[in-house]
Design brief:
Layout (H helix, E strand, L loop, with lengths): L2 H33 L9 H19 L6 H8 L13 H26 L4 H18 L1 H9 L8 H22 L7 H22 L15 H10 L7
Helix pairs in contact: 2-3, 2-4, 4-5, 4-6, 4-7, 5-6, 5-7, 5-8, 5-9, 7-8
Length: 239
């Protein structure tokens, strides 16, 4: 074989290897897309939902419900603007899922307070209220989303379930103080509504900075003791 042809053959073989390698990579990429889509940030399809929820919480905290967009969440998660459609049909769908996350944390906050409380019905109900306030102050954006926004869909089964779980804690707490089941009892359910209204009002006022009038009589120095005092004022009516 002439000397020059050796070089041509080597170059041709190199091109063939490059082409086959490229074909192999393309085939693997297509297979990966079928088995579980990978985003620009490296999320597999199964991890994308969680990544979007993390991004959604950041978006909500920074921009509020009014400025919340699906495109903004996708950008934060490092995925294409079309990627969220795999799990959420629109921004409200993502907010619904985020509200469910919020209610789960909300229930956890109340349970944590109850676990540390003395084992008696009054103290446990007070602890439930303190946990409610803890959550509002520590998770203001989620609290507003859960209780002051019309965007989450409360007909969504997951959201409905976790929201009812948190309400169930309150109903059980009131039932324990009264010594009888609250459900089906008109007076008892009014107590449930009164307890919820009072604690939610305290949480909302504290979150909005509208309880500064408490500074003057010296009640703001120990907020926990003050919140406890306020909650306890409704308990005698339940017995």
């Amino acid at each position: 074989m002439p000397a020059g042809l050796d070089d041509v053959k080597i170059e041709f073989d190199t091109v063939k290897m490059t082409v086959h390698t490229k074909i192999g990579v393309d085939q693997m990429e297509r297979a990966a897309m079928k088995g579980g889509e990978t985003s620009k940030a490296g999320y597999h399809h199964g991890d994308l939902r969680e990544a979007l929820l993390v991004a959604a919480e950041e978006e909500l905290a920074e921009k509020g419900v009014e400025g919340f967009t699906l495109r903004g969440c996708a950008k934060r998660a490092g995925v294409s603007h079309a990627a969220p459609a795999h799990h959420f049909k629109d921004a409200d769908g993502l907010l619904t899922a985020l509200a469910a996350v919020g209610f789960t944390r909300f229930t956890t906050a109340m349970t944590a307070r109850q676990s540390a409380a003395p084992v008696n019905s009054r103290e446990r109900l007070v602890a439930l209220g303190l946990g409610y306030i803890d959550f509002a102050i520590s998770e203001p954006a989620l609290f507003r989303l859960m209780f002051a926004s019309g965007r989450p869909d409360f007909n969504d089964p997951e959201l409905q379930q976790v929201a009812m779980n948190s309400l169930g804690q309150l109903i059980q707490g009131v039932s324990a103080v009264r010594g009888s089941a609250a459900q089906g009892d008109k007076a008892a359910m009014l107590d449930v509504a009164a307890a919820w209204s009072m604690v939610h009002g305290i949480a909302d006022l504290a979150l909005s900075g509208r309880m500064k009038f408490m500074d003057e009589p010296g009640l703001a120095g120990d907020p926990d003791a003050t919140y406890r005092n306020l909650i306890e004022r409704i308990l005698p009516r339940m017995e």
